[in-house]
Design goal:
Helix content is about 5%, strand content about 35%. The chain has a single domain, classed as YaeB-like (Elongation Factor Tu (Ef-tu), domain 3). The chain is mostly beta strands and about 130 residues long.
């Protein structure tokens, strides 16, 4: 499977933030996907699937960010970036949709990260 970049994250973030939920990001979509954004402005939240473009390699065991000790867990039991497929998934707040730019809050992705998909959040279906 080959993934296609549909947008790029623009937020100036080059280091991990303590409060990603306060970070505002612009998702700048390729022109061919602008029509696909129709109706997104009526939503409050969405899932963003993006790529960990700055990380290489992977590890089966990782130390979780919030761990208070040195214990390890399997990468699939964590939110770590050391994954075999460098995909991130974050539930974001939708702030604005204008032209080919979607402004979101809470995306834990670095500046320049590729966006592969965005999906509506449905409270009844997602239950979060």
């Amino acid at each position: 499977m080959k993934l296609r970049r549909i947008a790029t994250v623009i937020n100036g973030m080059t280091e991990t933030a303590a409060d990603w939920d306060k970070v505002s990001s612009k998702l700048v979509f390729e022109k061919e996907y602008v029509d696909s954004l129709y109706g997104l402005n009526k939503l409050k939240r969405a899932w963003v699937i993006f790529g960990f473009h700055r990380h290489r390699g992977w590890s089966p065991m990782v130390r979780p960010r919030c761990a208070k000790d040195e214990s390890l867990v399997g990468v699939f039991a964590s939110r770590g970036v050391q994954r075999p497929n460098k995909l991130g998934l974050t539930l974001v707040d939708l702030v604005n949709v204008k032209g080919n730019t979607v402004t979101v809050k809470g995306l834990d992705a670095f500046d320049g990260s590729p966006v592969y998909d965005i999906k509506n959040y449905d409270e009844d279906y997602d239950g979060y």
